[in-house]
């Protein structure tokens, strides 16, 4: 007869890591979201060998005090929610208290942080959750090295450095596009590849999607019955042969959602044909109670309470904007 036994904590975290930590890019997404939740205004990302060898994220956020730092790597430890009501109205990117526990179970992980007002910084690692004194002017530095060093079966699924870097670049752009007020920098193997100064939504969209897109995009800004859709969507003259330029956010979170994708396809159905795809950076905002973001640990899936109403709203907002006779294209850049 098989015997039932409780799994050790590390193994539980490693199993959970299968869902949260698919590849370096998923680590990067979680760390960027943590930095944003900490109120950072400048975030620097340094990757080595596609992020497989090292991901290092430096932020100027609120930091973590000594007592919290001891818990940061524990599973189900979060500063972001405390009750079901909090979960239903969650305004932060994170809330599951899982990412750091999962990441540190499959990679060498160090966190150095200095809380505001603290006389110095503290540091913990995957091996030692007891904080040790460290030096740092402020904010937090998270270093994740040798992803999947202890789980070879998972390591095999990682692709070449350049493929993994490509995924990291995607993850970085998705986060950066939604937070134009925050400055970001991305470097790879010691070279700075992308530097984004804090600015407004238009400037950030231009940096991420390019001048060509902005010259042939319309400003979307439609609000009705508690819903708002704003951002930029390409006119038919601009189309891509792939879906790379498609960014859709729900309450600041990048999502891939069937209802939304269908509404967008329908909105473009009469004006784009064949293998041509629109590009867009669109932000849907609604009451957090109207959308469940706790569908999957990676949180790129959501469930809408009123899917039909959302579909109609997105479809109409877009068709109306794209069909408007007056060219509301974005102004040319000032050079
Ligand atoms: P979650 O984000 O779901 O709360 P995480 O495992 O990602 O869970 O992080 C655990 C906790 O560690 C967070 O709730 C937060 O208090 C703290 N934390 C993580 N990263 C940072 C950071 N860059 N700055 C400040 N606090 C952080
Ligand atoms: Mg988090």
SSE arrangement:
Elements: H1 9-20, H2 24-37, E1 42-48, E2 54-59, H3 66-72, H4 84-88, H5 99-106, E3 108-114, E4 121-125, E5 132-134, E6 139-145, H6 152-155, H7 161-178, E7 183-188, E8 191-196, H8 201-209, H9 211-215, E9 217-224, E10 227-234, E11 246-250, E12 253-254, H10 258-269, E13 280-285, E14 291-292, E15 303-304, H11 307-323
Parallel strand pairs: 1-7, 11-13
Antiparallel strand pairs: 1-2, 2-6, 3-4, 3-6, 4-5, 7-8, 9-10, 10-13, 11-12, 14-15
Helix pairs in contact: 1-5, 2-7, 7-8, 10-11
The chain binds adenosine-5'-diphosphate (ADP) and magnesium ion (MG).
Adenosine-5'-diphosphate binds at residues 30, 34-35, 38, 59, 61-64, 68, 72, 77-80, 94-101, 140.
Concise account of the structure shown:
With 335 residues, this protein is an alpha+beta fold. The chain has eleven helices and 15 strands. The N and C termini lie far apart (75 Å).
Structure overview:
This protein has helices at 9-20, 24-37, 66-72, 84-88, 99-106, 152-155, 161-178, 201-209, 211-215, 258-269, 307-323; strands at residues 42-48, 54-59, 108-114, 121-125, 132-134, 139-145, 183-188, 191-196, 217-224, 227-234, 246-250, 253-254, 280-285, 291-292, 303-304. With 335 residues, it is α+β, with helices and mostly antiparallel strands. The strands form three sheets. Strands 5-4-3-6-2-1-7-8 form an eight-stranded mixed beta sheet, with helices on one face. Strand 1 (42-48) and strand 2 (54-59) form a beta hairpin. Helix 2 packs parallel to helix 7 and helix 10 (258-269) packs parallel to helix 11. The mean pLDDT is 93. The protein binds adenosine-5'-diphosphate and magnesium ion (MG). Adenosine-5'-diphosphate is lined by residues 30, 34-35, 38, 59, 61-64, 68, 72, 77-80, 94-101, 140. Magnesium ion binds at residues 30, 33-34, 94, 99.
């Amino acid at each position: 007869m098989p015997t039932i036994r409780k799994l050790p904590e590390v193994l539980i975290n490693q199993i959970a890591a299968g869902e949260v930590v698919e590849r370096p890019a998923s680590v990067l997404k979680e760390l960027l979201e943590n930095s944003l939740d900490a109120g950072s205004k400048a975030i620097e990302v340094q990757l080595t060998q596609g992020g497989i060898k090292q991901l290092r994220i430096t932020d100027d956020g609120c930091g973590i005090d000594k007592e919290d730092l001891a818990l940061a790597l524990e599973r189900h430890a979060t500063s972001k929610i405390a009750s079901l009501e909090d979960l239903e109205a969650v305004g932060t990117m994170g809330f599951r208290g899982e990412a750091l526990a999962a990441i540190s179970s499959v990679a060498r992980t160090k966190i150095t942080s200095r809380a505001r007002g603290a006389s110095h910084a503290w540091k913990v690692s995957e091996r030692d959750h007891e904080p040790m004194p460290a030096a740092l002017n402020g904010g937090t530095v998270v270093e994740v090295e040798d992803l999947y060093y202890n789980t070879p079966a998972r390591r095999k699924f990682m692709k070449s450095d350049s493929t993994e870097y490509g995924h990291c670049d995607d993850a970085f752009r998705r986060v950066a596009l939604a937070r134009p007020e925050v400055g970001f920098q991305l470097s790879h193997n010691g070279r700075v590849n992308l530097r984004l100064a804090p600015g407004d939504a238009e400037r950030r969209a231009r940096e991420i999607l390019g001048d060509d897109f902005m010259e042939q995009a319309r400003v979307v800004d439609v609000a009705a019955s508690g819903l708002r859709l704003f951002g930029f969507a390409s006119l038919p003259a601009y189309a891509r042969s792939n879906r790379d330029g498609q960014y859709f956010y729900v309450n600041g979170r990048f999502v891939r959602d069937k209802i939304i994708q269908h509404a967008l396809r329908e909105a473009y159905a009469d004006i784009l044909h064949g293998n041509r795809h629109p590009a867009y950076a669109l932000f849907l905002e609604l009451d957090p109670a109207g959308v469940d973001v706790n569908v999957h640990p990676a949180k790129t899936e959501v469930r809408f309470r009123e899917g039909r109403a959302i579909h109609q709203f997105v479809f109409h907002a877009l068709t109306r904007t794209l069909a408007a006779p007056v060219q509301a294209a974005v102004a040319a850049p000032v050079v």
